[in-house]
Amino acid sequence: MKKLIIANWKMHISLDDAFKFCARLIEQQHNNRFIIAPPTPYLAYLSDKFKSIEFCGQNVSQFEEQGSYTGEYSSLLLKLSGINYAIVGHSERRSLFQESNKLIRQKAENCLNAKISPIICIGEDLATRKNNNYKNFLLKQLVESLPNDKIGEGIDVIIAYEPIWTIGTGIIPNQEELIEIFDVLNCFLQQSQVANNVSLVYGGSVNLGNIEKILSVQNIDGVMIGKSSLDYQILVQILNYRFFEK
Fold first, then answer.
1. Mean pLDDT across the stretch 67-89?
2. Per-residue DSSP letters for 17-38?
3. For residues 74 and 45, is the Cβ–Cβ distance under 8 A?
4. 114-147, pLDDT tens digit by residue?
5. Which of 80, 97, 131, 235 has the highest count of CB atoms within 10 angstroms of its CB?
6. CB count, 10 Å around CB of 240?
7. 66: Cβ–Cβ under 8 A, 6 or more apart, which residues?
8. CB 56 within 8 A of CB 37
9. Catalytic site residue from 92, 144, 162, 212
């Protein structure tokens, strides 16, 4: 079974280097599905040049379709540029731009209306983890961010669990913690009767040293990788590795 690898390049890499990176990627077949989220100014150009690669917006506007919203880009404009995925609610957007669950839900709903698959990010900080309130916290994020009534209309949704306390630290939850969280998330999706249209991925300090451990956990369909995905050799090894067939 193929896993989903999402490479979030954030605000890194030049256009020239991004082009060369993608050109190398298409030279060979890969064992896993992958989506690349390059810096926004490169999206339309890279999507036009590399038709065989799925590209993803790192964000999308809460305003639908078109209008006088300087600096914004809507899900419709992404779709018209050939983009089929968009990240919403990333922890950096939540913390740096104070994006609420309500706002994230609106963005996700706009994506679905434009036939774009939203990648909805959720995750707890260290204080919430230590207070042992993380499961309720995550479920609240999910309930308030996920537009259940829009799911099931032919466009899949991806939920990315990225515990904030792991990002950039090299530390990830242990096996038992991953099993617990993804069981909770999967149970919620089953009860909401949307599980067939939703994939679950893990994000946060993913690298070659821990990805096999992460993807061996039941209910984890893939990973979202930040810094490590900027290293071509690392990303290619992840894309070509058959860890789940061992």
1. 94
2. HHHHHHHHHTTS--SSEEEEE-
3. no
4. 999 999 999 999 999 999 999 999 999 999 999 9
5. 235
6. 12
7. 74, 76, 77
8. yes
9. 162
- Residue pair 130/165 in contact (Cβ under 8 Å)? The answer is no
Structure tokens at 37: 């989220």
| Residue 152: CA count within 13 A, CB half-sphere | 10
Catalytic residue among 90, 92, 99, 109: 90
How many alpha carbons lie under 13 Å from residue 20 in its C-beta half-sphere?
A: 8
If you search the block for the tokens 């956990």, which residue do you land on? Answer: 217
Task: Give the count of beta carbons closer than 10 Å to the beta carbon of residue 78.
Answer: 27
Q: How far is CA 63 from the centre of its chain?
A: 21
Own/partner pairs, 168-172, CB within 8 angstroms, 24+ separation: 168/205, 168/226, 168/227, 169/205, 170/205, 170/207, 171/205, 172/202, 172/204, 172/205, 172/206, 172/210, 172/213, 172/214
CATH class for the region spanning 4-245: alpha beta
Ranges of each domain in the chain: 4-245
162 included as an active-site residue: yes
| Tens-digit pLDDT profile for residues 7-54 | 999 999 999 999 999 999 999 888 899 999 999 999 999 999 999 999
Cβ contacts of residue 165 below 8 Å, gap of 6+? 124, 125, 126, 129, 171
CA gap 4, 219 in Å, rounded: 12
pTM recorded for the entire structure: 0.94
